[in-house]
Write a structure and sequence with these properties.
Blueprint: H1 3-19, H2 35-41, E1 50-67, E2 70-77, E3 80-86, H3 88-91, H4 93-102, E4 108-117, E5 123-134, H5 150-155, H6 157-163, H7 165-187, E6 191-192, E7 198-199, E8 211-214, E9 219-223, H8 228-236, E10 241-249, E11 261-270, H9 274-293, E12 297-300, E13 303-306, E14 312-315, H10 316-324, H11 332-342, H12 355-367, E15 375-378, E16 390-391, E17 394-398, E18 400-405, E19 408-415, H13 420-435, H14 446-452, E20 459-465, H15 466-473
Parallel strand pairs: 3-5, 6-10, 14-15
Antiparallel strand pairs: 1-2, 1-4, 2-3, 4-5, 7-9, 8-9, 10-11, 11-20, 12-13, 15-18, 16-17, 18-19, 19-20
Length: 489
């Protein structure tokens, strides 16, 4: 039947329910057990066994079969499936026929009855009373085996979660990972805080912001690209160990690894540096791996990742030189000439520099995909790291690392710059890049500099992309799989 005819038939059943005085969308239902709780409570019950125990279960009907003068339905809740047995003996002949006539696949129902096992040993509930909880007015996909078109899955997420157990499992795993992160940091004395999402000036990262307008104040505001500068103010205020898990917004492209709004963890700890942040990252991510996999090894897209510590550490310049074959210590014009001679693509705007942008580009196209097991890439050029301290023995570099897992950047961390005069100088250099057309360059934030002049203790800070981490830990090929409602083109 055409879908509109199926919807019409369901609406006719809805009308019949109301004509009979039955509310098809009641307020509550007193459930006593989930499907999983029943299976645990009656595990090992032999076939054809009646328990005399009455329960109330609730869920969505996702399978139905009629066998002679009886019927069986699969009732699904969040914990799993339980079989419901319906027969005239318990529902009455008229009630039995009525419910079989008005119920459809997709309906939410509550069932009260006795727990028993069938002759084949299937744990079931013999329905003595059926309560409609929500009439489904749209048919499920054919055989409700899930949406086959990936694009449709992402656009119709409610239907996807309804029919796709894997999609639900990823969201459940996401919640477990977030809980593990909070527990890990809380146990180490960190305080969870919240900082503004609407900001007068975007800062803390190199990215294009979204702009909005506050009518009452008659001023433009920005959705935050990172919470970093506010979290550092809390270090100035003496909180010493802080973290935030929240949404950031960047007006950039959409891909399998990018969504304009995404979840990130940022954590800052006084009296440590980027070495301390490496130790924090190792312990935190290993705890998440153990929470979802039970071991320090898991499979992602057909390849195994080993999370046992310690993780590999490699300097950025060494890694890029090895994977590109170029001498990246050369002056910018010679480096660009070398790349062109080797046939390594480089966008025109990068040829003007700064040199750090070219090295970062080489990391992306030559090295990232080789970094499968967790790898800390260390010591980034000063000109692309405006918020990090200089490296102690190489002042043209900074004490900064990025963490890569399965070829994806997962974390970014610094020994945090706390010298207000040098920070101002770095911001001014960024402003020059903005004047040359770099829309991602950072701005001079006078309020932050004023607070930094009060004195910020030495500190290490780290940002972790939660969505990408969850992709890896749940074997998801796209960031869209780990977001409940991704933005689509």
């Amino acid at each position: 039947m055409p879908e509109q005819d199926l919807i019409l038939a369901r609406r006719e059943k809805l009308a019949r329910l109301r004509e009979r005085g039955i509310d098809p969308y009641p307020y509550t239902f007193s459930r006593t057990h989930t499907a999983q709780e029943l299976r645990e409570a009656f595990r090992g019950l032999p076939p054809a066994q009646h328990t005399g125990v009455e329960v109330a279960v609730a869920g969505r009907i996702l399978a139905f079969r009629r066998m002679g003068r009886a019927a069986f339905a699969d009732l699904h809740d969040r914990s799993g499936k339980i079989q419901v047995f319906a027969a005239p003996q318990t529902l009455g002949a008229e009630g039995y026929e009525f419910w079989l006539d008005v119920l459809d696949l997709g309906d939410w129902v509550g069932v009260q009855g006795e727990v028993f096992t069938t002759k084949t040993g299937e744990l079931s509930v013999a329905a003595q009373e059926i309560v409609i909880l929500a009439k489904s007015l749209r048919p499920l996909p054919e055989k409700w085996h899930g949406l086959r078109d990936v694009e449709t899955r992402y656009r119709e997420r409610a239907l996807d979660f309804l029919t796709n157990p894997k999609a639900r499992e990823i969201l459940i795993a996401r919640a477990k990972i977030l809980r593990t992160i909070r527990n890990h940091l809380d146990a180490r004395g960190f305080i969870e805080v919240e900082t503004p999402i609407l900001q007068p000036l975007p800062g803390g990262a190199s990215a294009r912001p979204f702009i909005t307008h506050h009518n009452e104040l008659d001023r433009d505001l920005y959705l935050r690209i990172a919470p970093e500068l506010y979290l550092k103010r809390l270090l100035v205020g003496g909180l010493e160990k802080v973290y935030e898990i929240g949404r950031n917004f960047r007006n950039e492209g959409i891909s399998s690894e990018h969504n304009p709004e995404f979840t990130a963890l940022e954590a800052y700890e006084a009296y440590t540096d980027y070495q301390g942040m490496m130790e924090l990252a190792e312990g935190l991510i290993e705890a998440c791996v153990l929470a979802v996999a039970g071991t320090s090894r898991l499979e992602y897209q057909g390849r195994w990742i080993e999370f046992s510590r310690p993780w590999r550490r490699v300097p950025l310049l060494e890694l890029v030189a090895e994977t590109s074959g170029c001498d990246v210590e050369k002056p910018l014009p010679e480096l660009v000439e070398d790349l062109e001679r080797r046939g390594i693509p480089i966008p025109e705007h990068l040829k003007r520099g700064p040199r750090g942008k070219v090295i970062e580009h080489l990391l992306e196209i030559c090295a990232e995909k080789t970094l499968w097991n967790p790898t800390f890439v260390l010591d980034y050029p000063l000109d692309i790291s405006p918020l990090a301290k200089r490296k102690r023995d190489r002042p043209d570099l900074t004490e900064r690392f990025e963490l890569f897992i399965a070829g994806k950047e997962v974390a970014n961390a610094f020994s945090e710059l706390n010298d207000p005069e040098e920070q101002r100088s770095r911001f001014m250099a960024q402003e020059k890049l903005r004047a040359q057309g770099d829309e991602e360059a950072q701005r001079v934030d006078e309020d932050f500099l004023r607070d930094l002049e009060l004195g910020m203790p030495p500190a290490g800070g780290i940002g972790i992309g939660i969505d990408r981490l969850i992709m890896i830990l749940t074997d998801a090929p796209s960031i869209r799989e780990v977001l409940a409602f991704p933005l689509l083109r």
